[in-house]
Specification:
By secondary structure, the chain is an alpha/beta fold. The protein has 8 helices and 5 strands; from the N terminus they run E-H-E-H-E-H-E-H-H-H-E-H-H. It has a 5-stranded parallel sheet, with helices on both faces. It is globular and about 50 Å long. About 35% of the residues are buried.
Length: about 200
C-alpha cells in the first residue's frame, strides 16, 4: 500500500479526508497539532478517530502559536458565533490563524519525506477558501510546487509529492454525506464531531 500523511485536526473535514484517503487505498499516517488552539478538545477526537480507523501511526506535534497571536483561536479575541453561512462573508475572519496551513503542511512534508510517502491529504474545502487565504486552490497548488523543490527527495527525483484536497469543491452537507457513506466507524465518529476543522 502507498503511504500517505493525513492532517487530522479531529473535526469534520479532516476526519472525512482521512477516511477518503483510506478508501483510496492509502496506508495512512495521521498528524495532528497542539498549537495553542482554544478548541483542543478536537485532539481527543482525533486520537479516538485515528484508533478507530486503525491508521498506521498517529502523532501530535506540539508548538505554541499563542506566542504570536493574531487569531481568535490563539489570542484574546472573541470567537464569533455565526448563525448562517451569510455571516461568513465579508473578508478574512478573525478565526484565521496566520500561516497555520503553511506550518501544518511543512510538518507533513517533512514526515512524508522521512516515510517515503508521496501523498499528503488536507481537509480544506470551498466553504473555507472564501475566507481563509491558505485554503484556496491556488495556495495548495503553490505549496505543492514549493514542496517538490524543497526536499532532498524532490531534488533528487526520488519523490514527487501530491497534495490531495478531496473536499475542495464540497459543501458541508456534501462532506457529511461523504463521511456517512464511508462505513460504520466513520459514521459513528462523524455524528459526534464538532463542525469545525
Amino acid at each position: 500500500m502507498k503511504k500517505a500523511v493525513c492532517l487530522l485536526s479531529g473535526g469534520l473535514d479532516s476526519t472525512t479526508a482521512l477516511a477518503i484517503a483510506q478508501q483510496q487505498g492509502f496506508n495512512v499516517h495521521a498528524m495532528s497539532f497542539r498549537y495553542g488552539q482554544r478548541h483542543s478538545v478536537e485532539l481527543t477526537k482525533a486520537e479516538a478517530f485515528a484508533r478507530a480507523r486503525n491508521v498506521a501511526k498517529h502523532i501530535i506535534v506540539d508548538f505554541d502559536l499563542r506566542m504570536i497571536g493574531g487569531s481568535a483561536l490563539t489570542d484574546d479575541i472573541d470567537v464569533p458565533k455565526h448563525q448562517s453561512a451569510a455571516d461568513l462573508e465579508g473578508g478574512i475572519p478573525v478565526t484565521y490563524v496566520p500561516a497555520r496551513n503553511t506550518i501544518f503542511l511543512s510538518f507533513a512534508l517533512g514526515w512524508a519525506e522521512v516515510l517515503g510517502a508521496e501523498d499528503i491529504f488536507i481537509g480544506v474545502n470551498a466553504l473555507d477558501y472564501s475566507g481563509y487565504p491558505d485554503c484556496r486552490p491556488e495556495y495548495i497548488e503553490t505549496f505543492e510546487t514549493l514542496a517538490n523543490r524543497a526536499t532532498k527527495a524532490g531534488v533528487e527525483g526520488t519523490q514527487h509529492l501530491k497534495i490531495h484536497v478531496p473536499l475542495m469543491q464540497m459543501s458541508k452537507a456534501d462532506i457529511i454525506r461523504s463521511g456517512l457513506e464511508l462505513g460504520p466507524l466513520c459514521q459513528y465518529d462523524l455524528r459526534h464531531l464538532p463542525l469545525t476543522i
